Amino acid sequence: MIRTEGVTDVTEETFAAEVLESALPVLVQFTADWCGPCRQLVPVLGEIAREEADRIRIVQLDVDRETAISVRYGVLATPTLMVFRAGEPVRSIVGARPKRRLLQELEDVLAPVDPTGLDRTDLDAFPEVRI
Fold first, then answer.
1. Phi and psi (nearest 5°) for 109?
2. What are the tens digits of pLDDT across the range 47-62?
3. 36-49: per-residue pLDDT in tens?
4. Taking CA 108 as the corner, what is the angle to CA 35 and CA 88, rounded to the nearest 5 degrees?
C-alpha cells in the first residue's frame, strides 16, 4: 500500500480499536497495491487527513490481505471509501474523486454532531412554548 502522512493502515486486529471504537468519524479507504485509482487518491486523502484531523480520521485497509473485513462490509470494488461513525458505516463512496468533490460529499459527515442527537427536523416536531 502507498503510505502518506496522516493516513494509518488498519488490519483485522486493529480495525475495531482504530475504526469502530473511534470518537471521531473514520473514513476507511479499501485499497489494493494494484489499484491505479487508489494510488491517485492517496495524496488527496493525506491532505484531508492533515487539514481535517480534528473532525475525521482516515485509514486504509488492504482488501487483498484483509478479505474478511472487505466481505463483512460488502466491498466489491476499489477504491471504496466508507465512513464509520459510532461504529456503524454511514456513507460509502466508490471510485476516486478530486479533493473538492470528496469534501463536498463528506460535508454532512464532517459537520459536528448535536450532542442531544436531535437534528433540525426533530426540532420542527416540537411546538413552541409560550409563556
1. -70, -35
2. 999 999 999 999 999 9
3. 999 999 999 999 99
4. 65
Report the greatest alpha carbon distance in the chain: 66
In the annotation, is 37 catalytic?
no
- Mapped onto helix, strand or coil, the DSSP state of residue 45 is helix
Residue 97, all three cell numbers:
474523486
The catalytically annotated residue of 26, 27, 38, 49 is 38
> What is the phi-psi region of residue 114: left when phi exceeds 0, alpha when psi lies from -120 to 50, beta otherwise?
beta
Catalytic residue among 7, 35, 41, 59: 35
Question: In this structure, are residues 32 and 78 in contact, taking their beta carbons and an 8 Å threshold?
Answer: yes
Q: Tell me the whole-structure pTM to 2 decimals.
A: 0.82
The answer to whether 7 touches 58, Cβ cutoff 8 Å, is: yes
Question: Does the annotation count 128 as an active-site position?
Answer: no
